[in-house]
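FORM 7B: Structural annotation worksheet

SECTION A. Query
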Amino acid sequence: MATPEDKKYAVVITDEMEASANARGTGIARRTPEYVSQKMDEGKAVIALTPQNDWVGFCYIETWSHGEYVANSGLIVAPAFRKSGVAKSIKKRIFELSRQKYPEAKLFGLTTGLAVMKINSDLGYEPVTYSELSQDEAFWAGCKSCVNYDILMSKERNNCMCTAMLYDPKDHYEPEETKQFFKEKAKGLERLMRIKQLKFLRSFLKKEKSGAGKPKSFLHYFFNF
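SECTION B. Predicted structure
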């Protein structure tokens, strides 16, 4: 668990979050070093370091609707340590910390990546509709800095580029079941994600041609597909 002593890594963490999102061409809500530092002060973050105290990875907890919903956000791993299993370990630890701090809360997440979907499935998360997520206005306000925010609002917050996933402690499948489901459906889920992204892209192109409005950054939508 991250402590106040780890705040010295806040800038490098947020810089890598932004650089990684830009490299992938995907949208994320921007985080500031001050916000990440606050999570460390509150004991709501997990950090991975080498024995030499080099930063490896990070993730933090957010709560919504008075603690009824919890999100594990900002998962990031330093480039040199990717594809080593670190992300999965961090995600497992932040999941355990969330369950410890908020045992009755529903854990949810939004992702554009199949790899994160797999990690979530291994923990017992299930794909859900946006209507099953927190409707807290503060949560949705966090999407304003995402390049896909126009898409979200055009769909009245019912859909977007991200896939929603949820773990409900009162009603959930066992991790082995969701893990097996993802294994069997991975190719289909990837195809569905691409179809959804293409559908949204075409919708925005049609809107642009009709003169009804133009996306803020067409290239971002294109590279999401």
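SECTION C. Observations
Residues 213-225 have pLDDT under 50 and may be disordered. Residues 4-224 form a domain with the Aminopeptidase fold (CATH 3.40.630.30).

SECTION D. Sign-off
Analyst initials: ____
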